[in-house]
Amino acid sequence: MLNEFDIIKQYFTQTKNTHPEIILGIGDDAAVWQQGNATLVASVDTLIEGKHFLSVCRPEDIAYKALAVNLSDFAAMGATPRWFTLALTLPIAHSDWLEKFSHSLFALAKQYDVVLIGGDTTQGALSITIQLMGTIDKDKMLLRNQAKPGDEIYVSGTLGDAGLALRVLQKKITLPESVALLVLPKLNRPEAQIPLGLALGGVAHAAIDISDGLAQDLGHILQASNVGADIYLDQLPLSESLTQALSRVDAENLALTAGDDYQLCFTLAPNHPIISELAPTHTLTRIGEITQQGGLRIHQKGQLIRPQTLGWQHFK
Ligand code: ADP
Ligand code: MG
């Protein structure tokens, strides 16, 4: 069966760009085009009940996440978000639900100074689609296809916390309530790394946001850049919540393959001073290096390993 990436490639990717205003079409975290003097950016993401959030999820968290995941794609481009549209499909119109949803949506929009300029409202199974638009400095775009052999690979924040939270909600793991309260927001309210993306623009070589798991999303950088990588699981940044809840090996595997963390993964020329410049405000961890030789080699306890999955895929 075709997976989501086969579908996009086979049916929706047109190789010939006949429109010179398009700077970046399908294949990165957002599209970029030139309109007069302005360089504009757009991305769209859908959240479906049962797939992207569980039915127990609160309206304020659903709204937050629907906007945050789009903001995260902008962070991965080094773009500035400005405007968004909202396509909302609801099974029933509960005013209490809508009150909480819209309040939370506008609170996050205000935080990033983005404004709702349109949308669509329909009845059906609960689904939320947000299209985000904004601007970018075209000399400072962060692309997936610019990783160079010898680059160091970094990730922001800690990895695997959202995956841990999902397993708590699915009742696969039980945590003390105080720890559960720490990790659940990592799944429900991911913080888009917009300031980091802007700081890395024109500095980092390649970048992506980790929505579907580090291994898979780094894999997109490797494929687009036609390079490979070595990464070391004992270097992955793991939260105390994660290492206390799971064995070291299980924690590393979750950090490697679980989605929904929305941290940035980026590559940088070796020993770049930006890392110490950003250290006071950001947690940035070096996890490996880019190689000329293709493929992703994952090292755990000094051994090469092959995880069963690299990350989340639709239609798999
Ligand atoms: P992300 O995880 O950053 O949202 P995806 O992996 O979902 O990115 O998508 C990969 C690329 O394919 C992106 O550039 C996206 O815009 C594009 N894409 C996804 N679905 C379609 C579609 N149905 N038609 C055209 N482009 C698509
Ligand atoms: Mg993305």
What's the quick description here?
The protein has helices at 4-12, 59-77, 95-112, 161-169, 177-188, 194-200, 214-225, 240-245, 248-257, 274-278, and strands spanning 22-24, 31-35, 38-48, 80-90, 115-123, 127-135, 152-156, 206-209, 228-232, 264-268, 284-291, 295-300, 303-305. It has 316 residues and is of the alpha+beta class.
SSE topology:
Elements: H1 4-12, E1 22-24, E2 31-35, E3 38-48, H2 59-77, E4 80-90, H3 95-112, E5 115-123, E6 127-135, E7 152-156, H4 161-169, H5 177-188, H6 194-200, E8 206-209, H7 214-225, E9 228-232, H8 240-245, H9 248-257, E10 264-268, H10 274-278, E11 284-291, E12 295-300, E13 303-305
Parallel strand pairs: 4-5, 9-12
Antiparallel strand pairs: 1-2, 2-3, 3-6, 4-6, 7-10, 7-11, 8-10, 9-11, 12-13
Helix pairs in contact: 2-3, 2-6, 4-5
The structure holds adenosine-5'-diphosphate (ADP) and magnesium ion (MG).
